[in-house]
Amino acid sequence: MAIQFTEKQTRVLEARDHNILVSAAAGSGKTAVLVERIVRMISEGERPLDIDRLLVVTFTRAAAAQMRERIARAVSDRLREDPSNAHLRRQETLIHNAQITTIDSFCSYLLRNNFSEIDLDPDFRVMDQTESELMSADVLDSFLEECYQQADPAFLECAAYFCPGSDDRGLQKMIADLYTMSSSRPQPEFWLKQRREDYHVESKEEIFTSLWLQTGILQTLEQLEDMDRQYSDMLEICGEPDGPEGYAALLTLEQDSLFGKLRQEPVLSIRQGHSGSLLQLAGSLDAEQAKAVWDLISGLGGASFGRLPALGKKRYPNVSESKKNRVKDRRAAIKTKIASICGKYSESSADLVFHTMRAADGPLRELVDLTLAYAERYRQAKREKNLLDFPDLEHYALQVLLDFHEDGTCTPRPAAMEYRRHFAEILIDEYQDSNDVQELLLRTISTEDEGRNNRFMVGDVKQSIYKFRLARPEIFMEKFDTYRPLDPRTERIDLDQNFRSRSQVLDSVN
After folding, report:
1. What is the tally of structural domains in the chain?
2. Residues of the chain falling short of pLDDT 70
């Protein structure tokens, strides 16, 4: 029996020729809709596509295999209805080599087809996670042993600063972590060199222009915005027929007292024209703006919370105990969080930040230089054995597609233009788990830079589970905040109806 698609699902199936972000909640039929969209693109309309003109990126090999199987089954079903359709018959053949794949497999495909462009031996082997961890640890151990033997004063100062005592495991971990973070950036070396300046300040005022401090205050500002939204949610609960309406007056006063300034300067200027994550703005605020945000946060230290009134059964006979406790628990959690935050923002804290940054400047520069030297040593070790790790696949693929310049900009190479001409649409599943390298890679082979948006992205930020692998759900959220329903260039479609779980389960989880 044919699936009956909802109105929003039908929009996902029919929207064409622009960027589309599908925010698909768990149980919303995402996979079925994605498969049906692909099948319609290769079987319907005046000029249906060949399936090898589509790039379909999934997160796991199992998901890619399942996707390929479901598409093949759907094509076979349509062929039974129309056995003389030569185009569909052709898709049965093409699907076996179509790019329905993981990002790693697609990068490997790019390298094996363009190895001569980047001086890469085509017989390379990709290490698994365990092998790459062992090899990188061995290289780092021998590298640090040499550093200790050479006893360079800058190195010894760095080691003493980051791991006082005789145990250097802290320094090893910091180099390894910094290297891993750089590997999730399109230009690791360029990014690392920028980090040299992160703690360099000449005066107390300069701390407010540092990337490190601005990242911290903007992160805190986002936390306050989230608390403000939670107060609004609590007030909505209070307004429900069985809600604790007796709490509403106090909650309204507290929300205005605590978060009213979020709707005034300097937050208004910072937020103007920017609905995505504030962390994107780190490093771009001027000192005055950053200091004003610091003072705003510091001012919460004097905030006082009233006592919630008793809600007796005589006056409030219909109040739900569950909703009353939900409001009380949320409010208590916010009180604790605000107390924790405010202790970090004061005049004495600013003095401490300044002196800490001054003391850390030299050791941090040395740490960056050590990481750069280790990265080169590890790269040489892999090249000698013709080995790659998973981040290498993505970075070499970028080198196939882009020329990088000293100022951090990049321009497309002939290979990028060729893939742009070939792929009619790029479909990305589990988009919430993308990182910056993957985002740049897939955008480069799309036709967005030529004014023709052709990316279809589907995911659910609530299901982002790979932050520890340096996935950046912020990439998804930036589009979620800026794409609009029915926008002819950048459209957002929300599949928020769950067909898998009972309403009681959904209400409880939400």
Report:
1. 3
2. 1-2, 273-276, 465-469, 498-510
